[in-house]
Queue: 4 jobs
Job 1
Amino acid sequence: MIDASHVPAEDQPLTAHVAGRIRDMLISGELSPGAKLSEQHMAAHFSISRNTLREVFRLLTSQNLLTYIPNRGVFVATPGEASVVDIYRVRRVIQKGAVQAASPTHPALSRMKDQLARTGAAQANGDWLKVGTINMEFHRSMVDLCDSPRLNAGFELVLAELRLVFAQFDDTAHLHEPYIALNKALLASLERGDTDTATKQLDDYLLRSERSVLAALQRARS
């Protein structure tokens, strides 16, 4: 029942493969917070059995990305303030470690530079959903500086949950625009090999971002 184009690598179980694809859909904004996931539709979309899909749903529910409501079904999670605080707590630990491990010659820096260029084009077009997606790619590349597949996997969950926070807002321009310049400055410090300055810049970035997101979430729910 599995389409050839959906067959995962031999070392990756099917459940993990499909869960990863759904996380990508969350990060790209294809799935909205609170949306109900049709078992029939999702199984057909991924060309998998319903039993396999239920395993995928269980995995993503354990990762706080989906919510199961008895007698109603499975829904995309809608993270609240407590989740935001914990997300940024995790980001500080992982991303500060990445910045402190950075080398000016690491290939991830080239990807980050390219991502910033794409951000500028999306900003000029007023495409803030795309700006947010590229910004997440930028910070995912930052974690690549650690050269740790385990940290990368953990950070994917953080990004997916964070996207579900941003997706609760109608207007995200004010949550993304100020941080484009901050990303540029942070990258410049990393390219110079100035990890002390980069660490401070990242601290300031995350504190400012966390406060902005929490304030926006409180306004949206008031």
Job 2
Amino acid sequence: MKAVVLVGGFGTRLRPLTLSTPKQMLPVGPVTMFERVIERLGAAGVDEAVVSLGFRPDAFIDAFPDGECAGVRVRYAIEDEPLDTAGAIRFAARSADIDDTFLVVNGDVLADVDDAWLVERHRSLGAEATIHLTAVDDPSRYGVVALDGDRVVAFVEKPAPGTAPTNLINAGTYVFEPSVLDRIAAVGKVSVERDTFPALVAAGTLFAVASDGYWIDAGTPATYLRANLDLIDGTRSNEAAVHPLASIDPAATVERSVVGEGASIGAGARVVGSVIMAGARVGGAATVIDSVVGAGASIGDGADVRELSVVGFGTPVAAGDHLAGAVRPEPSDWDI
């Protein structure tokens, strides 16, 4: 079994963390988001993942130079120009000579779906393509799927609030037959959500199945923070919250937070509901609440960082500074 993994986006919603790092290479707990996605595929029997790359392909290639991640062979399909979702799928699948049923996953979706079960359901339905669905409270941010039995009859991308026909959304994992690739134009940008799925609906060959396991799109600061905390508070698992090589002063308080390798928390500091990445420093008497501090960043003594503030990699926050719902560096200083 092969899979196509889509990681080509710029991660704009997670800036400044993604100014120089693809979002899938951000850590979720002690390992990257990408490794968690590949590990899940391996558990379903996928032996080769074809990674569709756009932004900073070197970050992936340098991280896995031997062509293996989480026990799965990885190969790379690097786009010369953005091809959108369907274009990227076609490009990656053709580059790997995929000629049998294959999986497609979004690299910023963390889920506990059983991909082997999904493939079995796809085959039992006789589908050309099958979408994995999950239910959400607010479907307006997603692609909403309306069904007649298991057959998709409508696909509405990001409907206006209150207008969605259902709360079942496209959860970012698909099973495709190779014939789907023939429906995707060979040149230019093509969207799987806006172009390919509606064509499959018209042909009557698009099906969908839902499951109620853990699922999160970790592409925003709020969901990225939640994905990390879900690993340590029992929501998804109970992994270690503090890396053994982190340094926490005995007079510091750390509650429900992820603290990465080599990070340090000073005397009198208070860290609550936050992510402190590898090598970051939180100074004495500083406060970090419900926020993300990037690798190598420093929070000065007595500084106060809260309300989903995001501090980029290697960025200093001055002693005594106050951030509430802020980003550092500020957008005006982003080199993009």
Job 3
Amino acid sequence: MVPPIEKSLKLSSTKKVFWVALFSVAMAYFEAAVVVYLRAIFYPNGFDFPLAMGPDSIIITELGREAATILMLVTIGFLCGRSKPERFAYLLISFGIWDIMYYVWLKVLIGWPSSLLTWDILFLIPLPWVGPCLAPILVSIAMIWAGWWIVRCHDRGFVPQFPVWAWFGEIAAGLIIIVSFIWDFNNIVSGGYPDVFRWDIFLIGMIAGIGLFLFMIKKQSMRY
């Protein structure tokens, strides 16, 4: 007979995804609330470029907050997954939901962004990332889909195996996407307005990453 406490820990993947999603939605609200406060202080007339660079103490605090956010998402993946691929899958799901809901909460709280093509400052580590809100949302949708596929594989009784070259390929695709976000960083840090977003670079990274993942899915399907 399974002890009650041990039995309670054996949640189905569907229930795990539900609780991960709930955590991510709440975490997104928490971050959106912080951004609302920051914009009220540094952008009383509404957020826009050029960036209002606060004192060094505020910038350092923001960098720490971003690092803590990533650590929290990694922790969720580690706690929920039963294998390395599944831990990574829950990280992808949590990250994707958090990122999308962050914009949803900002829209609810302050009516921003006005459209999916509104420019935003996305990240500060290691350089400022900027781009239309639609770009990170597309990345997040792909992350949720990939993470859900890996989780479902575990439910079917097998652990997806990705060769090292595939991991490096996905990392390379991710770096290409990041390049599209930091392409104009010199202009941003010097107090300028962002230029035209490099959708060409972004789409190369997206197509490469999704294409490689679909290729690996096909190989996994042939094995099982």
Job 4
Amino acid sequence: MTDYNLPDILLLEDKTKRFLTWIPDKSYIVLGASNKAEDALFLEKVKQDDITVLKRPSGGQTVMLTPNNLIISVVFFQPDNLQPKAVFNQINSLIIESLERVGVKNLAMRGISDIAIDGKKILGSSIYRSKDALLYHAVLNFGEPASTFEKYLKYPSKEPDYRLGRNHADFVTSLIEKGYTQSYTHLKNVLTNSLAKSFIL
């Protein structure tokens, strides 16, 4: 297991950038700060398929990132007066507005920091706060089948109220599964433009 070293961690060091939208180069499993691999993962399958496991400094539950996800990251400097709930609401609202503009329907904020379509999770997000910065990062599931998460991730130790005991396969969906037909690149550009209008220096 390795400390979190994915592209958005550099936002904490480079004060010329406020946000990043990016696509993972391969599959990763990222443990939340309080998660243990043996409790969160089906370790034999993870090792068998040589999935890289990282541990992030932010809270929340274990997530899996794949090349079929779009990662959205935003950094705030001097965040003393920022409340996590307000940050989640601000950025998740922006993401919902962007998705609605490209025809995605029935979106809603659910749980502490999720976005769902028809009650199924489409995006999860978490926050890391240091002395000088606050980093929001989210995983938007563009097209990864929920069966992938079911294969590697155990049922989490904590769950949002709307999960209602559902396993990964019944709880998670993707934009493609919900009928989204435009390209990955188009969606990435739409989200990047929306973030630029709000967060570019």
